[in-house]
Design goal:
This protein is an alpha/beta fold and about 475 residues long. It has two domains: about 140 residues, 3-Layer(aba) Sandwich (Leucine Aminopeptidase, subunit E, domain 1), CATH 3.40.220; about 325 residues, Aminopeptidase (3-Layer(aba) Sandwich), CATH 3.40.630. The chain has an eight-stranded mixed β-sheet, sandwiched between helices. A five-stranded mixed β-sheet has the order 2-3-1-4-5, with helices on both faces. The chain is elongated and about 85 Å long. The two termini are about 40 Å apart.
Length: about 475
């Protein structure tokens, strides 16, 4: 290690540095000791510029630290990285005083997740190459753990890339091609185009996309990692690549953000890539419906009635309540085709969930208490939080239609997220355990979150991976 290198050391929550004497020089120890007397010790991280080429970072670690806290510490450290001047950083693992296995791995993982940027369309790119090295003999990261961290990073970044792409690039045709490229990881992928979907009777999904010059697709992604032929677990995602609202047109302000209306599907695709990279020992299927909700002479009209794959008919009262139509066919098909142990769907489904929960929690709706608790616990562990919302038969009357089996919105008003979930529940025909995650407030962040720097968050990839690790693998 060069004398000019930047050093990361770990201390307790009171910033006691007595144990660091053997890792820094006497002059550095005295200098930092003096500065600590007037420092804000409530912070998680303090930095001390020793000279123009060296900075020493003190990272405060609480006694009851969790792995998610360590990832957040890594993300906070990332903010201090000086890409322009300081290229080499050394993490001294001998200063880690924690029983958390893979502490150093979680710290580096947090740095990596926070480092993501989407800048491929900028003509001038700043080269951001730095070196972060582990030194010391404590808390080495095993090969398996390195693979696990890499899988989460690649799955999350793939999901973020998909969500970040503009609508003129990532339309349904291109999206289907990108998913197909994942075959090289050992995933079995089937793409159902409009001709096949029409033959299957997926008129709810096809109706949403009929106003676009682009195709509409259902894509299934299978990972068979179990040694037996057990039924898979299933994840279903809404993939509306751009949502104008159709003839129930959205306001112009912020419509550009509707490129992220496919974030639920991106989570499913990113999760499947992650599982394939780390060779998960489980059978899993991901199913995504890919459409573009546009206005044209061929677009769906308010008042249209369509027959879904389930056989149930739907009156379209609002063409901007389109995600539930895509999911309706995808859910029934997933249940019938794969007979999964359970189904979790993800969608940026309603603005009402943002009114309810803001950008702190995603909404959880479920017909199964066990599955709901497993999801809540997994979300808490990785800090991708969920809040359970109600389902009840009394809400059904709000979506019953005089002209069809049901209507796609509640015109009475209120309970927007719940009636959307109640609508979806009607397409689970065989009482399969099911959960719906409304991630409208979590999929995209204007200001950045703990482990992302703003923009697409890949919310759900880490949550669902944790669910699989802890309860099903």
């Amino acid at each position: 290690m060069k004398a000019s290198s930047n050093l990361i050391l770990f201390v307790d929550e009171k910033f006691n540095i007595g144990s660091l004497k053997k890792y820094i020089s006497n002059s550095e120890f005295s200098y930092i000791s003096d500065l600590l007397k007037n420092s804000d010790l409530k912070k998680d991280l303090l930095s001390f510029d020793i000279n123009s080429k060296k900075t020493i970072f003190l990272v405060s670690v609480k006694k009851d630290v969790k792995f998610s806290d360590i990832e957040n510490l890594g993300a906070k450290f990332h903010r201090h990285i000086n890409y322009d001047k300081k290229k080499d950083y050394f993490v001294n693992t001998d200063t880690i005083n924690s029983n958390i296995e893979n502490f150093a791995g979680y710290f580096l993982h947090g740095i990596k997740l926070k480092s993501y940027e989407f800048n491929i369309y900028k003509s001038k790119k700043n080269k951001k190459n730095i070196s972060i090295n582990l030194i010391g003999n404590k808390n080495k990261v095993s090969g398996y753990s390195q693979l696990r961290f890499k899988a989460i990073e690649e799955g999350s970044f793939f999901a973020r890339d998909l969500v970040s792409e503009p609508g003129n690039i990532l339309h349904p045709d291109e999206y289907a091609r990108r998913i197909t490229s994942l075959k090289k990881f050992g995933l079995k992928i089937n793409v159902y185009d409009q001709k096949k979907l029409k033959k299957l009777g997926m008129n709810a999904l096809l109706g949403v996309g009929q106003g676009s010059i682009r195709g509409s697709y259902l894509v299934t992604i299978e990972w068979n990692g179990a040694k037996n032929n057990s039924n898979p677990i299933a994840f279903v995602g809404k993939g509306v690549c751009f949502d104008t609202g159709g003839y129930s047109l959205k306001p112009a302000k912020f419509m550009e953000d509707m490129t992220y209306d496919m974030a639920g599907s991106a989570t499913v695709v990113g999760l499947m890539k992650n599982l394939a990279i780390r060779k998960a020992k489980i059978n899993v299927v991901g199913v995504v419906g890919l459409v573009e909700n546009m206005v044209s002479g061929n677009a769906q009209r308010p008042g249209d009635i369509v027959k879904s794959y389930s056989g149930k008919t739907i009156e379209i009262l609002n063409t901007d309540a389109e995600g539930r139509l895509v999911l309706a066919d995808a859910l029934t098909y997933t249940e019938k085709k794969f007979k999964p142990k359970f189904i979790v769907d993800l969608a940026t489904l309603t603005g009402a969930i943002i009114v309810s929960l803001g950008s702190e929690y995603a909404g959880l709706f479920s017909n199964n208490d066990k599955l709901a608790k497993q999801l809540l616990d997994a979300g808490d562990k990785v800090q991708e939080k969920l809040w359970r919302m109600p389902l009840h038969k009394n809400f059904d009357k709000l979506i019953d239609s005089k002209n069809a089996d049901m209507q796609n919105i509640n015109y009475v008003g209120g309970a927007g997220s719940t009636t959307a979930a109640q609508f979806l529940q009607r397409f689970i025909l065989n009482k399969t355990p099911w959960a719906h995650l409304d991630i409208a407030g979590m999929a995209f962040s204007k200001y950045g979150g703990a482990l992302n720097s703003g923009g697409a968050t890949s919310y759900g990839v880490r949550l669902l991976n944790k669910l699989i690790e802890d309860d099903y693998e």
